[in-house]
Amino acid sequence: MKADVFIELKEGVADPEGEATKKALRLLGFKNVKSVSTVKVFRIDIDARNKDEAEEELKAMCEKLLANPVIQKYKIEWVE
Amino acid sequence: MKADVFIELKEGVADPEGEATKKALRLLGFKNVKSVSTVKVFRIDIDARNKDEAEEELKAMCEKLLANPVIQKYKIEWVE
After folding, report:
1. Domain of A21?
2. For residue B61, which of A36, A17, A15, A8 has the smallest C-alpha distance?
3. How far is C-alpha A79 from the chain's CA centre?
4. CATH code where residue A7 lies
5. Which pTM does this prediction carry?
6. Which member of B6, B46, B65 has the closest CB to residue A24?
7. What CA–CA distance (Å, rounded) separates B72 from B38?
8. Beta strand segments in chain B, E
């Protein structure tokens, strides 16, 4: 089973990479860009008996390694 | 309008960050992980008259700045 694990910044946390990207896009002439934020995605292929079991495991991975709970939140989306 | 621009590595391009993440997850005991690959997402809020126009502009952004066409491909998904 394949899932996309989205790691994004919580509301109110500064996103300097997104800000820099927005500035660069505007300098290149893309004046319609209102905001840019960045998200990290881990596409994880996992063996499990069912989606519930896999989702439990993916949540544990986020809490133990993939996300920093102080500034980031995560979301799991199934690809297949 | 908000779009998620997914920047992922082309087939066959090494993904050391994904490999390292897989190793770390397995060391933590997540033995069911078969593979991990990483994708970068730029969530872009853009002003445009319609989605076609915005999509053209987002493609231009990818080609000029966001993606490296030698090793990366991009995909645009509408959030709202």
Report:
1. 2-78
2. A36
3. 15
4. 3.30.1280.10
5. 0.92
6. B65
7. 12
8. 2-9, 33-46, 72-78
Counted domains in chain A: 1
Q: Is the pLDDT of residue A48 over 90?
A: yes
Please say whether the beta carbons of B57 and B25 come within 8 A: no
The pLDDT, as a whole number, for residue B38 is 97
Residues facing B39 on adjacent strands: A41, B8
Q: At residue B9, what is the residue type?
A: L
pLDDT digit string (tens) for chain B, length 80 residues:
999 999 999 999 999 999 999 999 999 999 999 999 999 999 999 999 999 999 999 999 999 999 999 999 999 999 97
Helical H segments across chain A, by residue range: 16-27, 51-61
Per-residue model confidence as pLDDT tens digits over A52-75 = 999 999 999 999 999 999 999 999
CA atoms within 13 A on the CB side of A10: 7
Q: Tokens standing for A45?
A: 């292929």
Collapsing DSSP to helix, strand or coil, B39 comes out as strand
CB of B78 less than 8 A from some CB of A: no
- Establish if A20 touches chain B: CB-CB under 8 angstroms: no
